[in-house]
Amino acid sequence: MTPVCRLDQIEVEGGVAALVDGVAVAIFRTHDGNVYAMSNYDPFSRASVLARGIVGDRGGTPFVASPMHKQAFDLRTGQCLDDAAVRVPTYDVRVDGGVVLVGPPQET
Amino acid sequence: MSPHLRKTLVVVGHGMVGHRFVQAAIERGLTETHDVVVVGEEPRPAYDRVALTSFFEVGAKALSLLPAGRYDDPRVTLRTGAEVVAVSPRQRIVTLNTGEDLHYDELVLATGAYPFVPPVPGKDLDNVFVYRTIEDLEAIRKAARKARSGAVVGGGLLGLEAANALRQLGLETHVVELAPRLMAVQVDAAGGRTLSRHVEQLGLTVHTGAMTEAVLGTGKVTGMALKDRKSLDVDLVVFSAGIRPRDGLGRGADLAVAERGGILVDEHCRTSDEHIYAIGECAAPGGVMYGLVAPGYAMAEVVVDTLLGGAGTFTGADMSTKLKLLGVDVASFGDAHATTEGALELVYSDAVAGVYKKLVISEDGKQLLGGVLVGDASAYGILRPMLATATNPGIELPENPEDLILPTGRGLTDIGLPDAAQVCSCNDVTKADIVAAAAAGTTTRAGSTCGSCKVQTKRIIEDYYASQGEVVDRSICEHFPLTRQELLDVVAVHGYRSFDQVVEAHGTGRGCDVCKPAIASILASLLGGHVLDGSTRTLQDTNDAYLANIQRNGTYSVVPRIPGGEITPEGLIVIGEVARDFGLYTKITGGQRIDLFGARMEELPAIWRRLVDAGFESGHAYGKALRTVKSCVGSTWCRYGVQDSVGLAIDLELRYRGLRSPHKLKGGVSGCARECAEARGKDFGVIATEKGWNLYVGGNGGATPAHARLLAGDLDTETLVRYLDRFLMYYVRTADRLQRTAPWIDALDGGLDRVREVVVDDALGLGSELEAAMARHVGGYFDEWRATIDDPEKLARFVSFVNAPDVPDPHISFRDARGQIAPADVDGPVVLGSTIPVGAPR
Ligand code: SRM
Ligand SMILES: Cc1cc2nc3c(=O)[nH]c(=O)nc-3n(C[C@H](O)[C@H](O)[C@H](O)COP(=O)(O)OP(=O)(O)OC[C@H]3O[C@@H](n4cnc5c(N)ncnc54)[C@H](O)[C@@H]3O)c2cc1C
Ligand code: SF4
Ligand code: FES
């Protein structure tokens, strides 16, 4: 797994983008202390921006809203909550000694 | 039908009811058989007497019920400025003051009422007035110019209206009422006290239980003597101590008259002469005179129906009233004084908030018999249809009737109204009528007269759409059961400073892209501070989060403020140099400034460093905030200009820059009526006049364009700014999220009139508070971009990758378009090292 930043570099309910093996990955931190990683690429607007979205919950599901046109993505699975046909890749992520580590894409 | 068979119908009086009668006669086809001649004594066609007090603000034209001056139907003749002096039932003629006789087949008397003036000494002095017609108000206004203080005799509904008018005219105002409380007919003692407190807070002096003995003075009024009290030092007196039916024509024609006045009529509104009808305030159906417009309208409909051979009858009307008196809601309905045997009273009173509500319910707790609402009459719409009367059992009360009057309207929406419930009493519109109109995409007359049923009507329409599966969301999102305005109130009242505090106390979950930016905006409006400070950063919408507008490829645009569109050659050169050095696309915007596109996020601080050093500041193109105040060149250069429009536009833009609001805000200032700045297309538009400035509000471009409407005219600059301060803060405090000023004004109960009441008349007494809030904003303003580039913590966010801050995002690439850069669309995520896309030309 690749160390990308310290946990305190990610704001609570905020996100950062990191380069992991040449790929842009968005890493989020939620209010309950969890950390999630998914592709930074928004398939709707075709721009690499998801890390800049607002983080919150929909009916208890943690999600990020694309900063471009507000589509919501489940932070745990990458599933788009507004379009069942769309899903973005998620990545293994772990916090170790205050450092965030990102692994390979998760199998679906 | 051949013309010689046509009959002649004469209507005496062109007031509200006479006009409604003619309208109904045309609509229902009575003019197919009858020529209608209307004789009205006033110099103008009928106008909205109910709204008489707004004459000072809106003028006679806006009050007119017949702005064209005549009816579309050629078979109706209107003669204004003509008085009927006698009726001869036997010959069926009426005689005019000109001596002319008019023959009639049927006669309708709609002569209204006149103000009662008690026979006290001095009542005929100069500067003694009544309050009934536009001419009365014109005379009062003229006298008020030379007066300092005035008294209104009568603390009833009309007396308080008149007092409000005197106050608006700048007079120190006294209200003298014989009864021990204000509005004695409608409200009970406790309600009267709450009302008095409100009225006194507005600076009026109330004298209850006071008897007027004489108006003092020789020639002109100098004071007023009260029994057993000190006399009042006033130079103007308005009598508003009740009205009396104008039944003189009836008496002269030997028609039967009710004991307490008014022409006696049967349930068809027919007088004791079979060809003469009487309707409105001059009539006394069953001996009772009704001093309200709704019963008069009902009588007008009944007479048209009768003349068409129908069976309609008038069997009495409910005397419910809801009014806004001096900015205070007052409603009274049914058995307000609980005189029914065994009636129970349910009272809610909050002396601090100035709210008093009382329900009168039947002994078994099932029927609503009446009530009084002071300070908050929002429940009136739902309560009135529930009311039980002699002829109508109303709607059974819910288990906990107190829910109906407790604050925040718990349960109000859950009580279904039956279809037959009358929602608009002025125009007799039922719930079923409103639903049918909503379904057909048409409208009803509900809400068009006194306006008190508007809220209820809106709710029925919303419920209808909701029942059709369309989402009518009243709360902001799933996390808060509140509207934006309620959220703002909650934040202001509790003094919250963070999203966490608000969501823990009033919401559920962790918020979303709807409520977070809304709360961020509310916190910014109320507290000021930097939008990227601490925990508020993660609440900000896309553009606010980076103080720049995101573009289709994830880059940003940069818009420095160019107040009023005025810029020096040096300024232009700096912008040109920055654009050239960072390889940005440049365009003149529709808002009279320059936009630089294609900046990578990590470049924003360096770009702004250059701009700030050259004296530029944030243009807030990214915020729900003031954008631009567009100007035309004005009197500085233009041969037509009458004021310095550029100067004012700059001042206004600098005054309101940075103000966070429910949606973006735009202004415009034109130097003369040619309006080259398109100011009336803006949320606030100012147009220069010879004497000062006209202020327009509620303009909008976008998908639903609207022209701004006149709020106030010929203002000096100081007054203009004061009104604008109030207007903008009132908008910030009460609009919905993402609601521009035009739909906000439309949605306000009372619309533009309401805005005028608050902003110009200061009817709610909010003016100084709103001005103070704006003063805090102006005093607390700082440039967001300068504060950002000077703060390492905020700057830390402006990196492409947290672990590779110097690597430009490989996903972003540009192509050439007309000699400048443009985003190149990229399909799929870009992997660094495999395909390296073309970078920005540098
Ligand atoms: C740049 C500009 C177009 C141009 O090339 O001229 C523009 C560009 C955008 N407009 Fe606009 N509008 C621009 C003038 C206007 C005007 C004309 C004006 O201001 O005189 C209007 C109509 C007037 C009005 O607002 O009433 C206008 C009505 C809109 C609307 C519709 C608003 C509405 O009430 O329906 C939106 C959408 C919104 O705000 O929700 C919008 C939204 C946008 C946004 C901000 C969309 C977004 O969020 O990315 C665009 C990006 C701006 C950027 O990147 O800087 N823009 N937009 C103009 C910038 C003016 C400025 O200097 O700040
Ligand atoms: C300030 C104010 C506020 C009010 N607020 C409310 C309210 O909130 N709610 C409510 O329900 N009601 C209100 N009213 C009462 C309402 O205005 C009246 O009920 C309504 O106007 C009655 O209509 P009408 O046609 O019977 O009488 P009017 O509107 O008075 O019309 C009668 C007309 O007949 C004319 N006329 C009389 N005699 C002759 C003649 N011999 N020849 C020719 N013309 C003649 C008069 O000049 C007048 O124009 C208010 C009234 C005032 C003054
Ligand atoms: S809607 Fe108008 S302002 Fe927005 S991006 Fe399209 S063209 Fe530009
Ligand atoms: S009740 Fe007066 S307008 Fe509807």
Walk me through this protein's architecture.
The complex is a heterodimer of chains A (108) and B (842). Chain A has 108 residues and is mostly beta strands. Chain A has one domain: Rieske Iron-sulfur Protein. In chain A, 0% of the residues lie in helices and 51% in strands. Chain A is built from no helices and eleven strands. In chain A, the strands form three sheets. A six-stranded antiparallel β-sheet of chain A has the order 1-11-10-4-3-2, with no helix packed on it. In chain A, a hairpin with a 2-residue loop joins strand 2 and strand 3. Chain A is globular. The model of chain A has no long low-confidence stretch (mean pLDDT 94). With 842 residues, chain B is of the alpha/beta class. Chain B folds into five domains: 175 residues, 3-Layer(bba) Sandwich (FAD/NAD(P)-binding domain); 125 residues, 3-Layer(bba) Sandwich (FAD/NAD(P)-binding domain); 98 residues, Enolase-like, domain 1 (2-Layer Sandwich); 57 residues, no CATH class; 158 residues, Sulfite Reductase Hemoprotein, domain 1, CATH 3.30.413. Chain B is built from 23 helices and 37 strands. Chain B has a five-stranded parallel β-sheet with strand order 3-2-1-7-18, with no helix packed on it. Chain B has a five-stranded parallel β-sheet with strand order 9-15-10-11-12, with helices on one face. Chain B has a five-stranded antiparallel β-sheet with strand order 20-21-24-23-22, sandwiched between helices. In chain B, helix 1 links the parallel strand 1 and strand 2. In chain B, helix 1 runs parallel beside helix 7 and helix 11 crosses helix 13. The C terminus of chain B is likely disordered. At the A-B interface, strand 2, strand 3, strand 6, strand 7 and strand 8 of A face helix 13 of B. The site of FE2/S2 (inorganic) cluster has 12 residues of chain B, from loops.
